[in-house]
Amino acid sequence: MNTNKPVGLTASAGFQIGVRRTLPFFQEDAWELLTSTQGRKLWLGDLATVEIVKGHKFVTQEGTTGEFRVVKPQEQLRMTWQPIGFPKASTLQIRLLPAASPGKTTISFHQEKLDSAEQREEMKAHWEEVISGLLALSKEKSIR
């Protein structure tokens, strides 16, 4: 029996990756930042307009396509997400979790149905960059 399963490989969801970081602002502010035009551009891509509601399909200017499957304001987004170059759609979930310290929120990106270990590493770097970008954007906006 081979016990050398690649990191991030699951039996049911292909490769997956989770990236999370606790940020120094309230959950409401984290949601506002995430769904703002500038924040959305970091994680979703460039869209003229988008409705963040269940069932809404989108195509970004970069060619990423998807559909919102779960929308719980200030808590969770779950969607299909397929950038150009992905042979099939992955599932992306973004959660905003209250942190132990008041005034802090943990933001979590979890992506599954990735094709390979290489794609997993690429997306890990991408989501880490997105979180850093959100933090930088929050400092520009002077969130509480």
SSE map:
Layout: E1 9-10, E2 14-23, H1 27-35, H2 37-43, E3 57-59, E4 65-72, E5 76-82, E6 90-98, E7 105-114, H3 117-141
Antiparallel strand pairs: 1-2, 2-7, 3-4, 4-5, 5-6, 6-7
Properties at a glance:
single chain; 144 residues; alpha+beta; 7-stranded antiparallel beta sheet; globular
Largest sheet, strands/sense/barrel: 7 strands, antiparallel
| % residues in beta strands | 25-35%
Kindly state the number of beta strands: 7
Going across the biggest sheet, name each strand in turn.
Answer: 1-2-7-6-5-4-3
**Number of DSSP helices?**
3
Going by helix content, strand content and strand pairing, the class is: alpha+beta
Q: How far is the N terminus from the C terminus?
A: 54 Å
Please state the CA-atom Rg, rounded to the nearest Å.
Answer: 15 Å
- Low confidence ranges: none
Structural write-up:
There is one protein chain. The protein has 144 residues and is an alpha+beta fold. It is 28% helix and 34% strand. The protein has helices at 27-35, 37-43, 117-141, and strands at residues 9-10, 14-23, 57-59, 65-72, 76-82, 90-98, 105-114. Strands 1-2-7-6-5-4-3 form a 7-stranded antiparallel sheet, covered by helices on one side. Strand 3 (57-59) and strand 4 form a beta hairpin. Helix 1 crosses helix 2 and helix 2 runs antiparallel to helix 3 (117-141). It is globular.
Question: Summed up, what is this model?
Answer:
Helices cover 28% and strands 34% of the residues. It contains 3 helices and 7 strands.
